[in-house]
Amino acid sequence: MKINANSIRGGMVIEHEGKQWSVIKHAIVQPGKGGAFIQVEMRDVASGTKSQARWRTADSVERLEVREIDCQYLYKEGEMYTFMDKSTYDQFGINGELLGERAAFLTDNMDVSVDFIEGKPVSVTLPKSVVLTVVEADPVVKGQTAASSYKPGILENGLKILIPPFIEAGTKIVVNTEDTSYVERAK
Q1: What CA–CA distance (Å, rounded) separates 171 from 185?
Q2: What is the pLDDT of residue 44?
Q3: pLDDT at 102 (0 to 100)
Q4: Do the domains 129-185 and 67-125 match in fold?
Q5: Domain boundaries defined on the chain
Q6: CATH entry, 2-63, from 3.30.930.10, 2.30.30.30, 3.40.50.300, 2.20.140.10
Q7: Residue 3 pLDDT more than 70?
Q8: Least CB-packed of 25, 47, 69, 115 within 10 Å?
């Protein structure tokens, strides 16, 4: 199925240069001169090699038809992450390389969807956002709050992200799993 390049998201499986690729990261780049383009980091489903590609926003890309299964994340053992098909209760493992840095967002019993091509898991789609606790945050510098600025913070899963100056250690926040950005303070 053809889709616009600007519709590419992490976890999708696309066909590029005759190979099947799982999208790891995507970014829309708007250079100062010229039109915007889509920068995509992806992994070859068959060999596991990484590659990058660029498309103009008007270009179309072939999204592969995959079987999407609702699953639940169970546990990690070494580099393998174990999931369970929620309808059949079958368990299967996925290598951490396939998940990339998104693996840091997995928590026990998290509901995810796993895409299969020919019976082989090729990508995992996480919830759009997760609630995590800030374990370390730099103190606010006086006068820094006058402008909208962000400070570095470390989350309970070890990821470093930029957070607003009013967020302190111990605060629960909502984090976007696609681009690892701060969304809002958790309620």
Answers
A1: 8
A2: 85
A3: 81
A4: yes
A5: 2-63, 67-125, 129-185
A6: 2.30.30.30
A7: yes
A8: 47
How far is the C-alpha of 127 from the C-alpha of 70, rounded, in Å?
12
CA atoms within a 13 Å half-sphere pointing along the CA-CB vector of 171: 20
The C-alpha atoms of residue 159 and residue 181 are separated, in whole angstroms, by 11
- Please state which CATH number belongs to domain 67-125: 2.40.50.140
Q: Which tokens go with 43?
A: 């992994």
Q: What would the pLDDT profile of 110-121 be if each residue is shown by its tens digit?
A: 999 998 887 788
The amino acid at 97: E
Instruction: State pLDDT tens for residues 37-95.
Output: 999 998 887 777 888 999 988 888 988 877 889 999 999 999 899 999 999 999 999 88
Q: Which residues of 143-169 are buried (b: 16+ CB within 10 A; e: fewer)?
A: eeeeeeeebebbbeeeeebebbbebee
| Mean pLDDT within 139-151 | 68
Helices within the chain (DSSP H only): 96-99
Q: Report how far residue 46's alpha carbon sits from residue 49's, in angstroms, rounded to the nearest whole number.
A: 8
Show the tokens assigned to 91.
Answer: 């368990």
Contacts of 35 (CB under 8 A, 6+ apart): 56, 57
